[in-house]
Amino acid sequence: xxxxxxxxxxxxxxxxxxxxxxxxxxxxxxxxxxxxxxxxxxxxxxxxxxxxxxxxxxxxxxxxxxxxxxxxxxxxxxxxxxxxxxxxxxxxxxxxxxxxxxxxxxxxxxxxxxxxxxxxxxxxxxxxxxxxxxxxxxxxxxxxxxxxxxxxxxxxxxxxxxxxxxxxxxxxxxxxxxxxxxxxxxxxxxxxxxxxxxxxxxxxxxxxxxxxxxxxxxxxxxxxxxxxxxxxxxxxxxxxxxxxx
Length: 245
Prior knowledge:
- By secondary structure, this protein is an alpha/beta fold.
- It has two domains: 5-141 and 202-242, Rossmann fold; 143-199, N-terminal domain of TfIIb, CATH 2.20.25.
- The protein has helices at 5-16, 19-32, 49-53, 68-74, 115-128, 142-150, 203-212, and strands at residues 39-43, 60-65, 85-88, 100-105, 129-140, 153-157, 161-170, 173-183, 189-199, 215-222, 235-242.
- A seven-stranded mixed sheet has the order 3-2-1-4-5-11-10, with helices on both faces.
- Strand 7 (161-170) and strand 8 (173-183) form a beta hairpin.
- It is globular, with a radius of gyration of 18 Å.
- It starts with a helix and ends with a strand.
């Protein structure tokens, strides 16, 4: 999906997402679920920043992403003795039944899934978890995406990047076109165009789909805080637990 955009994503996302807060939040939920370490599946790992923050928490990791370029940026962040297995695969397709204590899908992974893919994602995740396993996901809420659509064009000016972000809201999804102008070593600018589609998934809809395959809701919150997910939430976090079979 991201192709050349992977390096731009890597630089930008470190500024916009608090990985340490995510780690603290996950540790709280693991304690709540009486989980300790084990094997982590980072589904939609991107450039691996989330899993890199969890070194020392889990004994084994598998990192999956549909983008080869994202995985290439993730690999150098891990050194022996903790070198994860990296797999290029979509979140709705990966199957390794009963192998994981926890599954992580952060930074809007589920927003890139259609409704059918979301159903498959929950079904596969439930199957991939061990008994009493935990699934943590976050998403940009419909409220956030609709608010973004109110302004059709955004402009970001960084030292090494200049971004023009255009979006259009359609039935059930937000289409993005991101034009990035990247400064080269020669002082010139190279244009990179990225097109994405984010799907609007309501919280209650996701919970219903998750419960349909057997999950129970352990926690839901506004971002990675302890405050509840409300109609004003911009990033919603949902933590699901696989019930005993």
